[in-house]
Amino acid sequence: MPNCKYDDPKLCDARHINELETLAKIARTLSRKSKQEEILLEIIDILEGSHDIQRVTIMLLTIGGEELRVEAVKDQSVQLAQGKAYRRGEGITGKVLETGQPMIVPLVADEPRFKGRLHNRTNEPLSFICVPIILENETVGTMSVDCPASGMPALEELKRFMSIVVTIIANDVSARRIARMERQALESENLRLREAMMAKFQPENMIGNSNLMHEVYTRIHQVAASDTTVLIRGESGTGKELVASAIHYSSNRAKKPFVKVNCAALNENLLESELFGHEKGAFTGALQTRIGRVQEAEGGTLFLDEIGDFSPAIQVKLLRVLQERTYERVGSNEQRKANVRIIAATNADLEAAILDNRFRQDLFYRINVFPVYLPPLRARKDDILLLTNFFIRKYSEQMDVQIRRISTPAINMLMAYHWPGNVRELENTIEYAVLMGREDGVVHGHDLPPTLQTPVAIAATGSIKHTLKARVAMLERDMIVDSLKRHNGTISAAARELGITERMVRYKIQNLDIDYETLFKKRRRKKKSG
Questions:
Q1: Is this model's pTM higher than 0.90 or not?
Q2: Would you say residue 194 has pLDDT above 60?
Q3: Residue in 233, 319, 317 with CA at minimum distance from that of residue 268
């Protein structure tokens, strides 16, 4: 038995007997328990129940090795609290992590390095002991306790006992650390695979990284490989044809025809002939036999856009194609087989049309097997800038002009607009803006179409009123900011380019509420410090 620090041998013997019993209980717990989350908590209960100590806290090193975080403590609010950690060398606990040596604080109130970040302590006189958990000569954690303020001999005895305890639980701690590393590695791998799958699911002909668009990509991936009938729903201009194209070219029918029919563009008689074809002489003007779009799409996909505009007679014939996969040409009684996949699209409220007897309910159920909902552009504003950049590149190449960037006020106007025409309207807007901004290579707010020059959109640029004065101020602000950006915030260079004095530039910066400090000075300071 080691030499006792106490004068009374009986007290020393009782203390060591208690320590041996405690170590035996800990050993039994380690051999009996299999769930890691229970083991350390039970050991903490054993320690606090057999010794005059409290707030036993076990902390483990994070995977990066930069800081300690709570692994086990009786007070669950401490374990769940965010941001309660110790970095290397920070406070007593961080010092133990850094040095790998145990530390004793005889009186917490008198120790300036004591942080007390984890627990709420009263004003009672307390001592604090923290010992390192060491595995293969590496400190991977700490165990700390509070106890009533005592003399150094008693605290040294307690420190020695705690060092034995952490040696016994080191294997459990090692298993926890390995499990945590494996869990984080799996989480990282899952995140990488999820991002890779999202990139894989995203069709090449579609742009958008918003959550709503990722849901659309997932739906496309789910249905593409089958021959299931698809109904694409969404407002006009959201890109329903792109979804239909993505489904077809991701399917087994990709090498076969993809035939598109705009049902709203044709009247009833022409639509029937367009879809199913006609025989020579079937009607006035039918000078020769013509195959229909259904036959053109044989083996492939037939995309019926604006299916809500079908007449009742055409609806019946389309229902037959869906049910029996047969059809007849206009002017013929011969039944023909139709090996086609049907993808339909509409921006109409088909449920309301059914109630008004304008659309057959049985046809609705036939085409609505797998619905895909396309969100309007105003519901996925995160994609506006991505789409804008794509269209700028597209029309810059078409017009053979160099557009370097789009100004912040113009971006604000795009974000403030409600886009009733959705992506199609945005594309037309950017085509107009590229044409208008070709002179200086920048798309400004005033380069956008008149439909975007609304009070709300202009207010988003910093102007308050839709007046001539406000529009001029917006133009001046835009030109000054662009010139300053080109010259890295150098006012004299911007003044020379703009043909005005430095004093005028400084006056305009103040008068037009240009945040010069944030835009240029902070950026320059950051570059110098880097």
A1: no
A2: no
A3: 317
- Please return the burial class of 463, using the count of CB atoms within 10 Å of its CB with bins 0-12, 13-18 and 19+: buried
With a cut of 70, say whether residue 463 has pLDDT above it.
no
Q: Which CATH class is domain 379-529?
A: mainly alpha
What is the pLDDT confidence band of residue 13, given thresholds at 50, 70 and 90?
Answer: low
Kindly compute the dihedral angle of the four CA atoms of residues 77, 141, 109, 42, in this order, to the nearest 10 degrees.
Answer: 50
The ranges of the chain annotated as CATH 3.40.50.300 are 211-375
How many residues does the structure list for the chain? 530
Angstrom distance (rounded) from CA 409 to CA 477: 9
Indicate where the chain has its CATH 3.30.450.40 domain(s).
9-180
Q: For residue range 87-132, what is the model confidence (pLDDT) as tens digits?
A: 888 888 888 988 889 999 999 888 888 877 788 787 788 999 999 9
Residue 102 structure tokens: 């145990």
3-state secondary structure 97-143: HHHCCCEEECCHHHCCCCCCCCCCCCCCCEEEEEEEEEECCEEEEEE
Sign of the dihedral defined by the CA atoms of residues 197, 203, 206, 211, in that order: negative
- Say which CATH superfamily domain 211-375 falls into: P-loop containing nucleotide triphosphate hydrolases (3.40.50.300)
Which residues of the chain form CATH 1.10.8.60?
A: 379-529
Is there a contact between 240 and 247 (Cβ–Cβ < 8 Å)?
no
Which numeric CATH code is attached to 9-180? 3.30.450.40
Contact 423, 238 (CB under 8 A): yes
Cα angle value 255/258/263 (rounded, 5°): 170
Buried b (16+ CB within 10 A) or exposed e, 64-100: eeeebebbbbeeeebbeeeebbbebebbbbbbbbeee
